[in-house]
Amino acid sequence: MKILHTADWHLGQTLNGWSREAEHALWFEHLRDVLVEEKVDAMIVAGDIYDGINPSGDTQRLLYQSLRSIKSACPALRIVMTSGNHDPVARLEAPAAILEELDVHVIATVRRKNGKVDGAAHMIPLLDSTGQVRAYACAIPFLRSADLPGLSFDETHDGSPIVEAARRFHADLAAQAVKIASGLPIIAVGHLHCHGATESDGVERRILIGGEHAIPEDVFPQAFDYVALGHLHRPQNLDHGRIRYSGSPFPLSASEAGYEHGVTILEVMPEGLDIRHRPLPRPAEMLRFPAVGAMEIEKFTAVIKDFTVPEDLPSSLYPLVYVEIEATGPAAPLMEQAQKLLASAPVRTAGIRILRAVETVDAPAPMLTLSETDPEALFRSSFETVNGTSPSIEHIAAFREAMTGEDP
Fold first, then answer.
1. Which of 284, 299, 294, 293 is nearest to 348 (CA)?
2. pTM for the complete prediction?
3. What CA–CA distances, in Å, run from 19 to 247, 314, 315, 317?
4. Whether residue 204 is found in the same domain as residue 348
5. Where is each Calcineurin-like phosphoesterase domain found (predicted)?
6. CATH code (residue 192)
7. How far is CA 219 from CA 167, 168, 169, 214, in A?
8. Which of 110, 117, 185, 281 has the smallest number of Cβ neighbours within 10 A?
9. Buried b (16+ CB within 10 A) or exposed e, 106-131
10. 321 or 402, which is more confident
11. From residue 168, how far is each of 152, 161, 180 by CA, in Å?
């Protein structure tokens, strides 16, 4: 049987004010095509379905329409979804009764029975094309402090109490899972940051289990044959591939532009699991001008004026563009010029930065004490550093007024 592992959809995300809805809609079409082509039997979504706790009606509609489209193309597909730290757990679980009729199973909170974690409620059988159970998903939502039994910050032993409590939680769940699975592979699903994994600058929030930034990979017992993780957006392996982040669908920030986004395909075979990355096309390009460093405004003007896209490309799928301009004069006019150039081009402006070239100084200026520093001289120096020109008479007048509270 085949299992597809994906995560970190972040539906409802915006970038510099631009909606990503059209990109997500197109990506769902690519995902559906892969599910059909690969003849996938089960899909696992490891958290951060939504980008925030208050998804709009349009965002929720996109999720359910996409699930319906996927199920229409793959009627026998079983879908398992867990919550991430961005998700509104109540909203995810509210339609659970209806979703289960579509064979979509949502686990957004820890299930308990008689005060203890109910492992059976977290175990979802995964079936092959003949309807035979071939593996189990052990669905674990994003864990908060209240989810960890026996957590105490008064413990005297070495190590983090959060990590120790997380280790006990997963060990208990794994012990229950082993009894239920009866020798079949167990695919754990989680949403957290493991030590040793590479994070991105951008939308990955540094809040994990109980506020702990990262936890060691050994919190996942070896009883778990594969650990399908979400939270980090770069596709990557830990523990020789037993633990894997599938990554986000496409770049959600500038730091992700160089990633090879896609999904993970697991094939359950008699000799074990075969795991591979399956790239998916990007719904829209994410570009940086220049590719590295910064460029003068004259060069950028020539580049952006010649920039074209296919005539039938909708504006909602125009490339997202980051620009780094080298400042040789005042920064404000350069910013305004770059904004106008981008506004007239077939792009969506993701960000503009004005960078000043680093000047070589023969010798450092002598350090001054506070009593030796003249406030107005400090203002003039700072203004010249930022803007590349001396302050005008109006600037000096405004500074003096701010200093004295009186008109100059």
1. 284
2. 0.85
3. 20, 13, 11, 10
4. no
5. 1-235
6. 3.60.21.10
7. 5, 8, 9, 11
8. 281
9. bbbbbeeeeeebebeebbbebbeeee
10. 321
11. 13, 11, 19
Tell which of 279, 298, 321 closes a domain. Answer: 279
| Burial group, residue 330, by CB count within 10 angstroms (0-12, 13-18, 19+) | middle
Place of tokens 């830990």: 238
Is there a single domain that holds both residue 195 and residue 264?
yes
Quick one: pLDDT at residue 204? Answer: 55
Q: Which of 222, 117, 91, 209 is nearest to 172 (CA)?
A: 117
Q: For the packed helices 21-38 and 57-73, what is the interaxial angle rounded to 10 degrees?
A: 20
As for how many domains the chain has, the answer is: 2
Give residue-wise pLDDT tens across range 60-114: 999 999 999 999 999 999 999 999 999 999 999 999 999 999 999 999 999 999 9
Whether omega before 290 lies within 30 degrees of 0, making that bond cis, reads yes
34 lies in the same domain as 153: yes
Which of these three, 264, 279, 294, is where a domain ends?
Answer: 279
CA 326, CA 297: separation in Å to the nearest integer? 7
CA–CA separation, 162 and 145 (whole Å): 8
Question: Within this chain, do residues 17 and 142 fall inside the same structural domain, yes or no?
Answer: yes
Q: Are residues 291 and 266 in the same domain?
A: no
Residue 379 has pLDDT above 60, yes or no: yes
